[in-house]
Amino acid sequence: MSSTSSDIDDTVYIVTDIETDGPSPLRNSMLSFASVAMNRRGDFLGEFEVVLEPRADRASDPETMQWWETEPEAYKAATTNALPPEKAMAEYVNWVESFDGRKAFASAPLIFDGPFVDHYLDQFANTRVFGGPGKQARIFAGGGVDIYSVAGMVANAPHENWTTRGIPDSWIGNQPHTHFAIDDARGFAHLLKRFFIVGGLAAKYRNLECAEFGDGQELRDALVELIVSGKKTATCGSFAIYEEEGEPLPKVGERFIVPDWAGNPKCIIETISVEVKRFDEVDQDFARAEGEGDLSFAFWRDAHIEFFTRNGGYSPDMKLVCERFELIEAFELETTKE
Fold this sequence. Notes:
CATH topology of the largest domain: Nucleotidyltransferase, domain 5
Distance between the termini: 38 Å
Largest sheet: 5 strands, mixed
Order of helices and strands: EEEHHHEHEEEHHEHEHEEHHE
Number of domains: 2
CATH architecture of the largest domain: 2-Layer Sandwich
């Protein structure tokens, strides 16, 4: 079911978030959890979510339940249509095993989510998150991925600041942390994708936003090659998409990481101008700066009509965000030096 994600790592990462009625798997119950399966280049391969019946041999924590009173909608989602733990964990094992090859459990923080899921797998499905001695089946490889630790190392921060608090919404796919398990798992999956992209860059570039070109492997890699070669110095996008996603327009002087389809950062670009204009107002000079095909306006027009038609719709009077940029630095595969 999974596919090779890059020449570095073909592991399937199972990014997981849990909701509980207390802090300890030895005293409290896991109410719900959700996982997003992804590969290293950031493809989301599937999702799993389930609500579990509280365990009869556990008690809820008063302080946690008092906190849940401030999140009534999330608590309702975490307690509605609950399954017996043995049924829920059996379904989870089947889902994880539907992906081929190596699987790694990932969460933020691992020390909280990991022990709960590990304990429930041990108790109800005769398997574990964390490997060790014994004859139990292993559905995960290695010791798990702590996204907090990855965040701290990528940020080159002291250990006391190894956290995901205060990060820009764009890094988690503009997915607010809602305490709905599936929402939060999606957000952490977006974050892990970003860390895979920026982890090998010099520290001075790691906090930059990413600019992903094209809507498929062939187109993205072709466009990135044009940028790296200096032939492409402009791009445009639908203004409506910026509005729908609440994404700010690029600003003059803003720099971006440009990854290829495999998620490898290929270069840094800097925005030098931004204009909002209608599709039918784009001229030959801008079309040439986009650097595609034979550089003609006719090629630009036809290619972009096709692109916008398959990505939300096209009309001659649709507003475009027309951006010009310059290449700041291009990278080889090894980009770890300062």
